[in-house]
Amino acid sequence: MNDARPMTPPATDGRPPAADLPAKATLGRVLVDQKKAIVVALVLVGATYWIAGQFGEWELAGCISGGVLLGLVNHLMTERWLLGIITSGADPSRSQMIASTLLRLGVLTVVAVGAAIAFWPNGIGLLLGLAIFRLIALVMTGLPLLKELKQG
């Protein structure tokens, strides 16, 4: 239909138009932007309980679901960090980016391995759920980029 907002021409340097960027990076904005990833995670959790529940493996289902949810939290934290950099206009150094990534992945690793050990042998499902969600999130992120490269 008829949209009253004026069209903003795309930036020539590859960045999105300023009208598409929020004034401040918030968790709410990240949740809205990442609703596909959230829906995929919830579907995976539901499918895990549905499939593993049929075999009476409720602890395994919980561990796999926990891994999927850990992957989702990691994904959302990464997106929040990136949105914060974009909205602030900061130009972080390579060492700052590496430090932030290593800190986030270090915490994720300690939590995931600790939970896997605590719930052994079903705890290995947590690592499986984390890997499955990461793979799906990578594909969901990569496909639009490949389409854009193909068009451009």
Walkthrough of the structure:
This protein is an all-alpha fold and 152 residues long. It contains five helices and no strands. Mean pLDDT is 85; it is low at 1-15.
Task: Set down the secondary structure blueprint.
Layout lengths: L26 H7 L1 H20 L3 H31 L5 H25 L5 H28 L1
Which features would summarize this protein structure in a list?
mainly alpha, 5 helices, 73% helix, globular
Briefly characterize the structure.
This protein has 152 residues and is mainly α.
Label the overall shape.
globular
Number of helices: 5
The N- to C-terminal Cα distance equals 28 Å
Number of strands: 0
Helical residues, percent: over 70%
**Number of domain modules:** 1
- % residues in beta strands: under 5%
Order of helices and strands: HHHHH
Q: What do the pLDDT scores average to?
A: 85
Radius of gyration: 19 Å
Structural class: mainly alpha
Q: Which ranges are low-confidence, i.e. pLDDT below 50, for 5 or more consecutive residues?
A: 1-15
